[in-house]
Design brief:
The chain is mainly beta. The protein folds into 2 domains: 71 residues, no CATH class; 43 residues, no CATH class. It is built from 1 helix and 9 strands. The strands form 4 sheets. It has a 3-stranded antiparallel β-sheet with strand order 2-1-3, with helices on one face. A hairpin with a 4-residue loop joins strand 8 and strand 9. The radius of gyration is 18 Å and the shape is elongated. The model has no long low-confidence stretch (mean pLDDT 95).
Length: 114
């Protein structure tokens, strides 16, 4: 079982489906599904072995990096070229507390249960 992402004309993922394994029955399933739907189709995987990240609706397929990139969560975050995920300007503290990013102050704020 494999997963495939359909892309719009801007390489944005519009849908992800379950399909046949690439090469199964001697068929290029990316091409087959893409032709059937009239959209570009790219294989994706849950474990990130294919195209860095599992594709989700709204992700962008970057052909140069051959990777699916999630939407940028905040303007201050930068793309990690190795993971193709977004990194905050400062790393989140590593302890047993929970934090949320506060974009105006560009810092991590501890979540306090009320």
């Amino acid at each position: 079982m494999a997963h495939y992402a359909f892309l719009d004309s801007n390489n944005i993922v519009t849908e992800v489906i379950v399909g046949k394994n690439e090469g199964e029955e001697g068929i290029d399933w990316e091409q087959y599904y893409g032709n059937f739907r009239g959209q570009t189709c790219k294989r994706t995987s849950y474990n990130g072995n294919i195209r860095k990240n599992y594709a989700g609706i709204g992700y962008t397929y970057d052909a140069r990096r051959d990777a699916f990139i999630p939407p940028r969560p905040y303007a201050s975050w930068s793309l990690n070229e190795t993971t193709c995920l977004w990194d905050a300007p400062t790393p989140m503290p590593r302890n047993d507390k929970q934090y949320l990013w506060h974009e105006p102050a560009q810092l991590w704020v501890e979540v306090v249960n009320v």
